[in-house]
Specification:
Helix content is about 75%, strand content about 0%. It is mainly alpha-helical and about 140 residues long.
């Protein structure tokens, strides 16, 4: 974490970096379990974060864990390119969740609707916060 008093790490960026780090840790643990003990954990365990890429196997879990860890590290260092990557990841997640939320609405599946809706809400909050002008300025002055 930067110790620069003139440009401290905003709390929102710290929270978003922690969110990416937690997702990366989850994917790394799931991928490692799949490699070490095949069949111990289903590939569907990654579907909320990987949106179909989980079918590529444990190596995709590990690759995406590295990406999430890199984004978390870059956000903690206030890297502007990583901010744009995090925005792209959040917006892509929103787009990928819309069909499942629509299907859950039509089929009246409250659990799927709540989980998909919360996923969209969290991703919208991440995208909104990282695209705010004062937050973007924090990244540019670094």
């Amino acid at each position: 974490m930067p110790d620069d008093v003139a440009n401290p790490l905003p709390d929102g960026v710290r929270a978003i970096a922690a969110l990416f780090a937690l997702c990366g840790i989850y994917l790394a643990i799931a991928g490692a379990l799949m490699l070490l003990s095949p069949g111990a954990i289903a590939m569907a365990a990654g579907s909320p974060l990987l949106f179909g890429l989980e079918l590529a196997g444990p190596y995709m879990f590990l690759l995406m864990a590295c990406v999430a860890g890199g984004v978390a590290w870059g956000l903690a260092k206030l890297n502007n390119i990583v901010r744009h990557a995090a925005l792209l990841i959040a917006i892509t997640g929103i787009v990928m969740l819309v069909p499942s939320v629509s299907a859950a609405t039509v089929m009246v599946q409250p659990k799927a609707l709540v989980l998909g809706g919360l996923g969209i809400i969290v991703r919208v909050m991440v995208a909104w916060y990282l695209s705010r002008g004062e937050v973007a300025d924090q990244f540019k002055t670094r």
